[in-house]
Amino acid sequence: MTVQSDPHSATSLDVASRDTKGTSRTTGALVRKIRTGAPVVPFLVYVILVLGVPTGTIVAFAFRSNTGRFTWSNIHTILGTTAQTLEFRTGFENSLKLAVVTAVIPGVLGTIIAYAISTSEHPAFKRITAATSGVLAQFGGVNLAFMFIATLAATNGLVTKWLAAIGLDPWNHGFDLYKFWGVAFVYMYFQIPLMVLIITPAFAGLRPAWREAAEGLGASRWRFWRHVGIPVLTPAILGSMFLLFGSGFSAYATAEALTGGTISITPIQIGSILQGNVIAGEQNIAYALAFAMIVILLVSVVIYVLLRRRTSRWLL
After folding, report:
1. What is the rounded distance in angstroms from the CA atom of residue 200 to the CA atom of residue 134?
2. Which pLDDT belongs to residue 278?
3. Do 58 and 119 sit in the same domain of this protein?
4. Number of domains in the chain
5. How far apart are CA 48 and CA 38, in angstroms?
6. What is the mean pLDDT of residues 100-128?
7. How many Cα neighbours within 13 Å face the side chain of 244?
């Protein structure tokens, strides 16, 4: 007796088998993706809570009136030119000037120091310099302000007394620790090490083969840096300066502790408003100021990312 197989049953079994295998592969791929992305979840939660929620709150209140309605009046106030609102515009101008000064000067000095580090043949010197830069780049705020007050104060500053003893008292030559250039000078204390940390890897990315090829073609060291080194490093240097710009633009604790809030910059104005020093009906001005700072910092970060992408073509 011959048993004939049903072709329709065989086909159904094949389809079911393929569906089962496909589902298994899909499930396996999903599990692998979950395992790969699971370690990132705590970081995303942290970013949302620490960065996303405060930023959303700032944006919401920057365009909210005292009655809870949408308004542009807060933005108009901080950008106004009337006698009452001109202080906010002056604060932005001073903050931008301070950020530019503490980005360009430390950027140049930090680049020179990074070049000296990258060309040094002493590993111990490189390690010590890198460790010192890492510490000094994070040494800001109240501690830094009091350190400079104890060092360069007008009457009791230690270094001021030493310089005055030899007739070089800086306060007699226009220096003022509590004004714009005094604050900029203090900012450079942590901006220069920060620049060193950021730009040193770029110098390490310069390939020795490029210099060897230039020397083989008869180029001097100056011609190598003029036609190869500097053009390749320029995007990295400019991008690092934009990071310094953001750091100097948003710094608050150092200037507040150093000057007692007498210098007109936006971070100090925000702190003053949040402490209750505000005209009735303008409680949300601080949020508008913070929103404007976020926009400026966002632009600087975007420029840095674009320059970093250009740098990665050659140095990474």
Report:
1. 12
2. 66
3. no
4. 2
5. 16
6. 89
7. 35
